[in-house]
């Protein structure tokens, strides 16, 4: 579904990834692990077309994405939940959601405003609050809800558990597990080892701007050497 | 003189009238600024263009309302040409290049005005509907100036509704907050920018046509209004409608009352205000980004 080959991406003259390759299969969840600064977020930004300096190949359903503007990439069916959540502070919770829903909501579309509010009841109480009045956990829920309203075929998440209380992490886990059960393809970047490996079908470990290890969640749980060398678990 | 209530009422109305002209100009500039960080110094020239086109249109048709209708459309069309020919290419060129190119445009417009309309100040008749004077609250005030204040308030209300209640408004606010994330939701920010740019140009043209009957129309009127307009945008906060409203009122009142109460200090009053705001609130009074 998503294939990345020999990706070199960065900011201006500074290259962060060096010949990275990975792929997400339809209906599968790929977790990308790795320490801070190894190029995980940079890879996701490159997929979304947000970086100026990119070389290599990124294909979605066989279609090259490099050079397309972000709004075209989004329209192709990729939804992005960034590390910083990027809730629009000038918009209410409802407006944040409607912005995504009105452009992608189809009559037969799986995700509607009602359905995401059932998934995140906390947001229903907060509908008329401003985007900045939310707690970190609520912002993360809103970012995921907003992405779902785009009815994506691939959901990209950048460290969805970062900075959240354990109870919120649990509820996010339950939601993502449900999405996985429905067969939504996901690319999950995480530092939370337990969270990522319990959701993923496949695991990649990144180090120094490229993939240094590939395998299944069971493999990496058993491989303490890889954990120690690349994850510091 | 200053103890007289009518003095204060008249000067307040004068200040409101200037504020509304500044608002019509600064609102387009600030949203363009906020949405794509584009610095268009030629915005004042578009205001002057509106005035010149208005003078010609009203002379041709023999009616003020021809100016009122034609100037915004003509200036928006010129804006489209500017956008396609220059501004779109300058989008990623960085602020310095944008400032230089649009600064150059000021001189291009200046000479085009000279070629087209000459160096002699031009005038334009008020509409019959709003000619003469109106008596109220114990004062006599030119009716057309009341019309300017009313028009400014109508545009202000319409833009507030557009920004706060419509989908386009939500898209513009989202684009000002975070253009990258808006694009990741499938919004073509570039196209939104184009629409906003055209709207900003039309409002500048409207301001020019509306100002023409009260000011003399000269080739340098665009450069004269550019500085206070930029001050409004900076004081109010880049990209913010509320900031444009507050900044326009502040500058309109400081400039008007400064000129009558302390003429010797009036020239620096606006800049002193700018300095104070920048020291206390570096992002402006109502920054668009929280």
UniProtKB/TrEMBL annotation, chain A:
It holds the Pfam family ABC_tran. PROSITE patterns: ABC_TRANSPORTER_1, ABC_TRANSPORTER_2. The keyword Chloroplast does not apply. InterPro entries: AAA+_ATPase (IPR003593), ABC_transporter-like_ATP-bd (IPR003439), ABC_transporter-like_CS (IPR017871), BCAA_Transport_ATP-bd_LivF (IPR052156), P-loop_NTPase (IPR027417). Keywords: Amino-acid transport, ATP-binding, Nucleotide-binding, Transport. This is ABC transporter ATP-binding protein. One of its GO terms (biological process) is L-amino acid transport. SUPFAM superfamilies: P-loop containing nucleoside triphosphate hydrolases (SSF52540). GO terms for molecular function: ATP binding; ATP hydrolysis activity; branched-chain amino acid transmembrane transporter activity. Belongs to the ABC transporter superfamily.
TrEMBL record, chain B:
Its main location: membrane. It comes from the Bacteria. It is found in: Cell membrane. It is a multi-pass membrane protein. GO terms for biological process: amino acid transport. One of its GO terms (molecular function) is transmembrane transporter activity. Keywords: Amino-acid transport, Cell membrane, Membrane, Transmembrane, Transmembrane helix, Transport. The lineage of its organism: Bacteria, Pseudomonadati, Pseudomonadota, Alphaproteobacteria, Rhodospirillales. PANTHER family: ABC TRANSPORTER ATP-BINDING PROTEIN, BRANCHED-CHAIN AMINO ACID TRANSPORT SYSTEM PERMEASE PROTEIN LIVH. The chain crosses the membrane at residues 20-39, 46-64, 70-87, 99-117, 144-163, 192-215, 221-241, 253-280. This is Branched-chain amino acid ABC transporter permease. InterPro entries: ABC_transp_permease, BCAA_transport_permease. Belongs to the binding-protein-dependent transport system permease family. LivHM subfamily.
């Amino acid at each position: 579904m998503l294939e990345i080959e020999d990706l070199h991406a960065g900011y201006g003259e500074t290259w962060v990834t060096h010949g990275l390759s990975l792929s997400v299969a339809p209906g599968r969840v790929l977790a990308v692990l790795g320490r801070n600064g190894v190029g995980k977020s940079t890879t996701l930004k490159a997929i979304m077309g947000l970086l100026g300096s990119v070389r290599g190949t990124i294909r979605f359903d066989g279609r090259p994405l490099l050079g397309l503007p972000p709004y075209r990439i989004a329209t192709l069916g990729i939804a992005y939940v960034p590390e910083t959540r990027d809730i629009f502070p000038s918009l209410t919770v409802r407006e944040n959601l409607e912005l995504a829903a009105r452009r992608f909501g189809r009559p037969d579309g799986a995700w509607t405003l009602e359905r995401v509010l059932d998934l995140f009841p906390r947001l229903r109480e907060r509908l008329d609050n401003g985007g900045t009045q939310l707690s970190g956990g609520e912002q993360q829920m809103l970012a995921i809800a907003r992405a779902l309203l785009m009815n994506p075929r691939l959901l990209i998440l950048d460290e969805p558990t970062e900075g959240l209380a354990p109870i919120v992490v649990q509820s996010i886990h339950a939601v993502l597990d449900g999405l996985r059960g429905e067969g939504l393809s996901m690319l999950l970047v995480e530092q939370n080892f337990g969270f990522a490996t319990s959701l993923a079908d496949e695991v990649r470990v990144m180090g120094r701007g490229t993939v240094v290890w590939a395998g299944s969640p069971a493999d990496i749980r058993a491989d303490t050497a890889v954990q120690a060398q690349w994850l510091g678990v | 003189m200053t103890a007289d209530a009518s003095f204060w009422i008249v000067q307040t109305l004068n200040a409101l009238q200037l504020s509304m002209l500044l608002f019509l100009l600064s609102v387009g500039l600030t949203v363009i600024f906020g949405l794509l960080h584009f610095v268009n110094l030629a915005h004042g020239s578009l205001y002057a263009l509106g005035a010149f086109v208005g003078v010609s249109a009203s002379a041709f048709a023999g009616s003020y309302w021809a100016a009122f209708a034609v100037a915004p459309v003509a200036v928006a069309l010129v804006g489209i040409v500017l956008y396609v020919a220059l501004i779109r290419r300058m989008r990623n060129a960085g602020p310095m290049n944008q400032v230089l190119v649009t600064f150059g445009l000021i001189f291009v417009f200046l000479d085009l005005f000279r070629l087209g309309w000459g160096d002699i100040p031009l005038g334009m008749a008020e509409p019959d509907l709003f000619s003469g004077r109106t008596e109220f609250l114990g004062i006599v005030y030119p009716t057309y100036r009341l019309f300017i204040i009313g028009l400014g308030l109508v545009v202000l209300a319409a833009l507030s509704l557009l920004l706060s209640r419509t989908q386009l408004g939500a898209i513009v606010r989202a684009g000002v907050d975070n253009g990258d994330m808006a694009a990741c939701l499938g919004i073509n920010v570039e196209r939104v920018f184009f629409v906003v740019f055209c709207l900003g140009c039309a409002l500048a043209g409207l301001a020019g046509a509306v100002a023409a009957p009260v000011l003399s129309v000269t080739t340098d009127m665009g450069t004269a209004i550019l500085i206070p307009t930029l001050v409004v945008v900076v004081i109010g906060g880049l990209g913010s409608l509320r900031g444009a409203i507050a900044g326009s009122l502040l500058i309109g009142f400081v400039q008007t009352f400064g000129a009558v109460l302390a003429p010797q200090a009036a020239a620096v009053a606006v800049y002193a205000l700018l300095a104070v705001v920048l020291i206390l609130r570096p992002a402006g009074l109502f920054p668009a980004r929280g």
